[in-house]
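Section 5.1 Outputs to date
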Amino acid sequence: MSIRKHLGAVACAVALVLHSRAPMAAGNMGGTLQASMVLTASCAVSGAAGAGTSGVSFGTLDFGSQPSTFSGVLVANPTGGAGGAGATEIACSPDVAAVAVAVSGGNNPGQGGAIGTGTRALKHGTSYLPYEVYSDAALATAFPTAATPVGVVLPGTGAPIALPVFGRINKTNASAMPAGTYADVLQVTISW
């Protein structure tokens, strides 16, 4: 065998050995990496896309439709809040045992006393239909018109509950009222 062929074979063998070897590690290092996140106690409208703290939509307290001569008691619960159709619910973290809920007097407090009972009033033109809002489904604890907070105990499970605002119209006068949409706006604040 000639030297040239021998050197060519040796060069191929060396090339194969060099290509088949993995690079040598110069050293290594191991350890731990901490991961963390802080969750704070909070409440939000159940099903809402965000957990905003102002401009939250709590929906509508809709008493429905009645003839202008109706009299008696109507009740309503908030529906259609930021979480979508259906009853407006709030969800609080399980460590929130109670909230303080304040409801303003609306735009027409104290109006319409000749028609019925209630510290707030729905308005249409110059006509008023009084109503009241309560913190409990039994309609026992009315919200003050001065927006003084009322304490509401939560189940502490983190499960959604109905927004603790319950409305009642008690029209005691059967006199006909002008037909139309009667409305009011209430500011609601929930603190925990």
